[in-house]
Write a structure and sequence with these properties.
The chain has about 260 residues and is an alpha/beta fold. It has one domain: TIM Barrel (Alpha-Beta Barrel). About 40% of the residues lie in helices and about 20% in strands. Strands 1-2-3-4-5-6-9 form a seven-stranded parallel beta barrel, surrounded by five helices. Strands 7-8 form a two-stranded antiparallel sheet. The protein is globular, with a radius of gyration of 17 Å. The two termini are about 30 Å apart.
Length: about 260
């Protein structure tokens, strides 16, 4: 069994830091790096990519709303054409920095409110996925389960790699429970560990209502801004290794980045 372990990183701004990126980079196989809109700045982006390259960690673009104050977690009403351009802008920013130091951006993910809105709305997911495909059809879209994003990806000829958010609750449709609801963010390490073990053992997750949902995940995601992120990452990594799994970047799982034509 091969599975990716990734985290959202590079989410500080100027002298302000968010989470322990260096510790997480030593535990994960892929990093979703903020591109300067919901968080991050050019120097943080460069330093994060450099460290990821040193450690052999895959680099991905974490694309969100232009909302630093709200950390990209507040829904915004932006015309779709403008929003697609915002996606392209962020992909280009991280890609330029990565190329300048001999690295490659191999995947992308939608952050926060943007990701939640696209996941539940096919009419929004389609143009955003089209923007990704137009930028680079080899890019993997790393996403939680979403019929909207997965359907748009099929029409655009890009691959979606499903990621399991170990520290977030799911509803019965496979969508994330909104953060404002009780229990939406899981802080109990033992609960996170049991969820990961169930995923590895059964390929399923218990939903917020107590139901059982199939989860064909190729990746497990932890949020870098969660205070328990480093501890969770160590615990999850140990559970994967205990189960005999190999932790590899999602681009190296069959059908990954290098399988797409240039």
């Amino acid at each position: 069994m091969k599975i990716d372990l990734n985290a959202d990183l590079g989410e500080g701004f100027g002298p302000w830091t968010m989470g322990d990126d260096d510790a997480l980079l030593q535990l994960v196989s892929s990093a979703n790096i903020a591109c300067g809109f919901h968080a991050g700045d050019p120097l943080i982006m460069k330093r994060t990519v450099l460290r990821a390259k040193e450690l052999g960690v895959d680099v991905g673009a974490h694309v969100g709303f232009p909302d630093r104050q709200g950390f990209g977690r507040r829904p915004m009403q932006i015309p779709v054409e403008e929003l697609a351009a915002i996606v392209t802008y962020q992909l280009g920013a991280l890609d330029g920095i990565a190329r300048s130091i001999g690295a490659r951006v191999k995947h992308m993910s939608f952050h926060g409110a943007l990701g939640n809105m696209a996941a539940s709305d096919a009419a929004l997911a389609q143009p955003l996925v089209e923007a990704v495909a137009a930028f680079d059809p080899r890019l993997l879209i790393v996403s939680s389960t979403s019929a909207a994003i997965e359907g748009a990806a099929r029409t655009c000829g890009v691959r979606v790699a499903i990621t399991f958010l170990a520290d977030r609750a799911y509803d019965d449709d496979g969508l994330l429970v909104p953060r404002g609801r009780p229990g939406a963010v899981i802080h109990d390490q033992q609960v996170v560990l049991e969820r990961v073990r169930r995923l590895l053992r059964e390929g399923r997750v218990v939903t917020a209502s107590g139901g059982s949902l199939a989860m064909p995940a190729q990746s497990i995601l932890l949020h870098g801004d969660n205070a328990e992120a480093v501890s969770f990452a160590r615990t999850v990594r140990g559970a994967i290794e205990e189960a005999g799994g190999a932790i590899v970047p999602v681009s190296q799982i069959p059908g990954g980045f290098d399988a797409r034509p240039s």
